[in-house]
Structure formats: structure tokens, C-alpha cells
Amino acid sequence: MKKHRHHPETEAVHGGTNLDKKNAPLATPIYQTATFEVTDNEQQLRATHTDMFYTRYGNPTNTVVESAIAELEGADASQLFASGMSAITTSILALLKSGDHVVAQRDIYGGATKFFSQWLPKLGIETTLVDTTEYDQHERAIRPNTKLLYLESPTNPTVQVIDLHKVAALAKKHNLLTMIDSTFATPINQRPVEFGIDLVMHSGTKYFGGHSDLIAGIVAGRKDLIERIHETRTTLGGVMDPHAAWLLLRGIKTLAVRVQRHNENALRIAQFLAQHAKVRRVYYPFLEGHSQRAVAMEQMHGGGGMVSFEVDGSGEDARRLSEALNLFTLAPSLGGVDSLVCIPVLTSHAMISAEQRERMGVTEQLIRLSVGIENADDLIADLEHAFAAVSLPRQHVPVG
């Protein structure tokens, strides 16, 4: 009899745990320890490659979380890291060497852009940045020494969506590894592995944790690649603390229900902004008129909780509007139960040049909203209050 495959909502609650009946704690224990005791030196040797040797190598709490994430992503395995940037940098250093070449989207998180443009060249690794949805440009950028196609979808902060079928086929044609930052989507809305993507990265700080109280990085994918990444993580040391891993697991249990509410609220707010006279442009993939709406609805179960928009005014107007909000807290990061607002040129993309930001469409007028799980009517009322408090000219609203 074929084993029943659980839905994502069930996997989020039960993934990574043994479902056999037993007398045991319902909540996964926290193995808050740096090292593990053994009975003799022979056992010490056997323990070296397990999760009960030394927590930099592995930890039973972390193992449960990694198993849960792998199930959610439909991947062979996963690894936890101390931060999202640790997940990105460790994975890339595990897979590339001096003389290799990367093709990466232009529209990616600013920290990743900085790593590709300023740090990898020191190691003899070149990166070519290409326009996100110009797939012919992706292919033209591929060289004989290209090893990796680095992707992000939806993108931060303009929420552009890539066609996963196209990029996976392109990578297969040229024998390239693919790695995608899927933080904005979560595995509830999108499972890139099912489209043929090799590695899926998340800043677990965001939706996986869900409460803005931990820092975490996640990479899931093929077993052989995860094993290489694990070896590099052990050397570089960017492992996640077991208590933070336990908090991450607790967040995962409510991931599906939270993401559903994020999806609903964000769509309503995007629709509100698209009709507002003081907004120049709205970026949300499920919004009618968005340039990638068709592909987004084909490969995603929801548009996610991130909405970006440009005010019809100056950068100073955008700042004043962000400061006039009350329910939207002025803070970096995203993906928590609380709604947040930030100006990307001052936060997520402050570390890259103005020229790079301009080519990505990240303007001084751009405001990014991380829509939480509050009542949507209250959030819209907060936006209305802020717009009323800031005098801006009126203009028609195109959709991004």
C-alpha cells in the first residue's frame, strides 16, 4: 500500500518527529550542551560523525528541525545555520573554488549582492549579474567555467517572480547547480525542489521563526550537496545554537496557518494601495496587472506577506509616511506576526551602491511592508491615517 503523503499543514506540525506511539515528551527536548559524554574511546570514534559528538558537528535538537524542514521542502536533507547570510556564504564556499564563475540575478538581497561582488572576487570567483526575468540574458552570461546559477524568488524588495521551470531547464542544459533564496515564499507557498532546483535557502529568521525573536539560516536540497555543505559548516563554524533551533521548530508548527493569514492580508493591502491616489507603483505578485502574475499563480499557492510600493513624491515623503504608521512598526527584517515597514535603501539594500540599487529598481521612494497577521481592516486604517498625515500629490497607479 502506497504511503499517504501528508499535506504541508500536517508536515509543519509533525515533520521530523517519530509518529510511533511512545511514552515520551510531546515537545522536542533542547539538548543545550556543547559536547556529549561517551563510555570509551571506541564509542568516541563512532560518535564523531553523529549528532551526539560536539554541537558544532550536530545536535539532536537541530537534527529534528532539519528533518522537519527537509520534509516541508520535499528535499533529501537540510542544514541549519547561525544566520541566513551564513547559510548563503557557507553553501557557496562549499560548492565553488577559485576560477569558478557564478550567474546571479540582479534582484537579490543586498547582503548576497555584497558577497558576490566584493568577497568572492578575493577568492578568485567571478559573478555576472543578470536581469531577473531576462532568461536569454541568463544563458548568454554562462561561460565554460560557470558552476552555479543563483536565484531569488520572489525578490527582495520588488517582489519579482522567476519562472522556475525555465531556470531549472537552463541549468540542466548547461550542467549547472541551482540555488534559490525562497525566503519570501516559504515552502507553504512554493517548493522549488519540485521544479528541479538543487538547493533552497531561507533566512529562517523570517517566516520559519515567525516571531522576530531568533536569527537562523536554512539550506535544503540534494543529499550529496548537503553533505558537502555540512562539512564546510563544521569547518567555518556557523552552526545554529540548539535553543534557537528549538524556537525555530516551535515557529514551524504554526507556519502554515500564519502564511495563510499573511497571504490574505497582503493581497488586501496590495489592492488597497493599487487604488490609492498617492501611490505611484505597487509590487505584489498576485495583484491583477503584475507582470509575473500568471507564472506566480501557476507555481505559488499564495502571494506571500511582502508588499512594496512607491509613493508619488520624494524619498523624504517615503520616510515621513513610514514614520507616520503605528501598527506597522518601523524596523528591518520581515516575516513575523507583527507588521513591519522599512525603506530598503536604508536597510536591506543600504550596503550596496546607489547604481546597483537603481538597476534593481530600488528607489528612495520605495517602501517595503512585511504584512503581519493582524486584522487587515486595522492595517488598512493605519495606512489611510499615515497617508492623510503626509501631503503627497495625486497620480495614476501602475502595478509592478
Detailed description of the structure:
This protein has about 400 residues and is α/β, with parallel strands linked by helices. The protein is globular, with a radius of gyration of 21 Å. It has 15 helices and 12 strands. The mean pLDDT is about 90. Helices cover about 40% and strands about 15% of the residues.
> What fraction, in percent, of the residue positions are helical?
25-40%
Please work out how many helical segments DSSP would assign. Answer: 15
Shape: globular
Widest beta sheet: strand line-up: 1-7-6-5-4-2-3
What profile does the largest beta sheet have?
A: 7 strands, mixed
Q: Average pLDDT value? A: 92
- Strand % is 5-15%
**Low confidence ranges:** none
Question: How large, in whole angstroms, is the Cα Rg?
Answer: 21 Å
Question: Helix/strand/pairing class, anyone?
Answer: alpha/beta
Structure summary, number of beta strands: 12
How are helices and strands ordered from N to C? HHHEHEHEHEHEHEEHHHEHEHEEHEH
* N- to C-terminal distance: 48 Å
Structure summary:
With 400 residues, this protein is an alpha/beta fold.
Provide the fold topology.
Layout: H1 8-14, H2 41-47, H3 60-73, E1 77-81, H4 84-95, E2 101-105, H5 110-119, E3 126-130, H6 135-141, E4 146-152, H7 164-173, E5 177-181, H8 186-189, E6 199-203, E7 217-221, H9 223-236, H10 242-253, H11 255-274, E8 279-283, H12 293-299, E9 306-311, H13 315-324, E10 329-330, E11 340-342, H14 354-360, E12 366-370, H15 376-389
Parallel strand pairs: 2-3, 2-4, 4-5, 5-6, 10-11
Antiparallel strand pairs: 1-7, 6-7, 8-9, 9-12, 11-12
Helix pairs in contact: 1-3, 3-10, 4-9, 13-15
